[in-house]
Structure formats: C-alpha cells, structure tokens
TrEMBL record:
Domain Helix-turn-helix type: from-to ranges: 24-79
PROSITE patterns given in the database record: WYL (PS52050)
DNA-binding listed as a keyword: yes
Domain WCX residues, every copy: 259-333
All residue ranges annotated as the WYL domain in the record: 162-228
Name this polypeptide is given: Predicted DNA-binding transcriptional regulator YafY, contains an HTH and WYL domains
Sorted UniProt keywords: DNA-binding
GO function terms (MF aspect): DNA binding
Pfam family, one: WCX
C-alpha cells in the first residue's frame, strides 16, 4: 500500500519473518527475471526453501503489491511477461543478507579509515552507504552506533602511498616505491606492475609483478614509502595465474604449495576451529574422541605457525615433521624467556 509520500511500505528489518520474506521476494524476483520459460511451483519451493502455500502468497505479493508482470498458473508455471519483464525492477531498495552484510562492512571500513585526506575524500560515499542502509531499514537515519566492527592489530598506512597504490591498480600503471621489509628491515627500491590490492586481517596488501625479480610478490602497503604511479602501462597477468600463485596456499604470503599441514585441535578448541575458514581448500573432520583434525596447504610457514600457536596447548601439528619441529623450536624459545632468573 502506498504511503503519503508515494513510497510503498516494505517489510521492516528486526524480525526473522521480515528478513525471510525479503530474502524470498528478492530470490523469487531474480528467478523469474532470469527464466525464459515458466518456472514450476515445485521448483520455486526448492529454490526458496518454503511450502507450496508460501510460494503462492509470495507470488501474489509480488504481483499485487509490487506490480510485477507475472503471468502463468499452477499447472504450467509462472514467469514474467516477455515484453515487461526486462524493464521491471523491485521498487525501492531490496537487499539480500549478503548484500546487506557487504554494505555494513563497507560502511565500517570507511568509518575506520581515520580523519585524514583519504577519509575526507570518501566521506560522500560513506554518507550514501548510510543512506542506503537507512532506506532499507525503514528509518530516517542509519544508527551507526548500533553496528561495531572492531579492528584487530591494524597498522597505520601513509595515505599518500595508499592513494598512489590504489590509483596504479585501477588505472593499470606501473608503480615505483621504497619498501622496508618487516623481516629484515632492509630498504629497497621496487618497480612493479600492480595486479590487485587486498584487504586482509585489517591491513592492506598489494599483489604485484616485481620487474627486477621477475615474479609475483605481495607487499604490505604500510611498509611502502614515496610511492608514485608511473606513465608506463602495467603488465597484466591472467586471473588464473594470480589465483594459482596467490590463492593456492595459506594466507597472504601464498605461492605454490610446498605441502599440506595436519593440525589436531583439542575437543575444547574444536568448537571454534570447526566453524573457521582457514583456507578455501581446507579439509576438516571431527575425530571420535571429540578432537578436530584440520588439513591446509601452505607455502610459507610463518603465518600458519602464528595461527596454530595462537591456540597454545589446544593445537598440535601432526605433520609434516619439519613444520612440527619449527613449532617446537618456537615454543622452546618462548619457554626460555620465562626460565631466566
């Protein structure tokens, strides 16, 4: 039913039933819009995960309240009218849970950029996102203080360098910068072809082709200085090559996998680890005694060891032997710090 302002009322967020209906109506619209032929009620039941009666109620709501050009019947199936279906869109803003989560994450990421030049440039975008969220929730102003994303060990970045990096990635230009390696503190000059900028664990990284070293590398943006985009076009690598090198192993410091690590977690830790996504190709299973076995591919061991040691006595590396010995050495060094008088 139209309101006084001419806008249609939509289900409000805040009740599970409302969220379920938003999800179903959005999915139903997308199914009908993508289908060239009538879609049976049985298929709609399977796609929407609801009863036959609910399918008919949603179809009626979509047709009568939202003016969707639905045609058909329960025998042949339903579809959008061929002449009107392409033009029809849901009125107002309808978001699935995944889209709402993405907007919330983007809004919080903008809030956390700080008070410098970068956040000033992004302020208009932040206001637009908050406006979209407010419209979806049916309120006049999005309650920012009701959503919190707490950063964990985020590092400060130089905004001028970040802008240069982002510009070079998007404009497909080569990038020159000074890099101070965290492991050795050595300073080097780098000339790279940026491929992707990655936000990982509250920090930014640049995936790039290093021209001097003739290989793909990942650089922490917070370790860059004097970054400037050049006029020379960047060398482009295929997504398959990038994914093979940068997503095939554990963590941001990925590469061609050297092997698989098998870690067994205590029954207490299993309640957390079983729900965690360590890697897209991980393999996990509950053991008969309540413990949890996790297998992940890895290239560079230091980040994997950091995550395993985070669980302390509740995690044990079973194999490979070399990774087990590395963990043992780190634990012995840590213990030695407490043995000093």
């Amino acid at each position: 039913m139209p309101t006084r302002t001419g806008r249609r009322k939509r289900p409000r967020l805040g009740h599970n039933h409302g969220m379920d209906k938003i999800e179903r109506i959005t999915s139903l619209h997308r199914i009908l819009k993508a289908s060239r032929y009538p879609v049976t009620v049985k298929r709609l039941q399977e796609e929407l995960g609801c009863s036959r009666a609910t399918v008919y109620r949603d179809l009626a709501y979509l047709r009568d309240a939202l003016m969707a050009p639905i045609e058909g019947d329960g025998e042949a199936g339903f579809r959008y009218n061929a002449s009107e279906g392409d033009r029809f869109e849901l009125p107002g803003l309808w978001l699935s849970s995944e889209e709402l989560y993405a907007l919330l994450a983007a809004q919080q990421l903008l809030v956390r950029t700080g008070g410098g030049v970068l956040s000033g440039a992004l302020a208009p975008l932040q206001k637009r996102i908050e406006g979209l969220l407010a419209d979806h929730a049916g309120v006049s102003q999005w309650p920012v203080d009701r959503v919190r994303v707490i950063p964990h060990r985020g590092r400060h970045i130089d905004e001028a360098s970040f802008r240069a990096v982002a510009s070079a990635v998007l404009e497909r230009r080569q990038l020159a910068f000074e890099y101070r390696a965290r492991s050795t503190d050595e300073r080097t000059r780098r000339l790279v072809s940026p491929q992707r900028i990655t936000h990982y664990r509250d920090n930014w990284y640049l995936d790039a082709w290093d021209h001097e070293r003739q290989g793909l590398r990942s650089f922490a943006v917070d370790r860059m200085g004097q970054a400037r985009a050049l006029d020379e076009p960047a060398k482009d690598l295929s997504n398959d090559d990038l994914n093979h090198h940068l997503a095939s192993s554990y963590g941001i410091f990925s590469g061609e996998p050297k092997g698989w690590a098998t870690i067994v977690f205590s029954a207490k830790a299993a309640r957390w680890v079983a729900d965690e996504q360590w890697h897209s190709k991980q393999q996990g299973r509950m053991l008969s005694d309540g413990r949890y076995e996790l297998k992940v591919p890895y290239s560079v061991s230091r980040e994997l060891l950091m995550d395993i040691l985070h669980y302390g006595a509740d995690a044990e590396i079973v194999e490979p032997a070399v990774l087990r010995e590395q963990a043992k050495s780190l634990l012995e060094l840590a213990l030695a710090n407490y043995a000093k008088a």
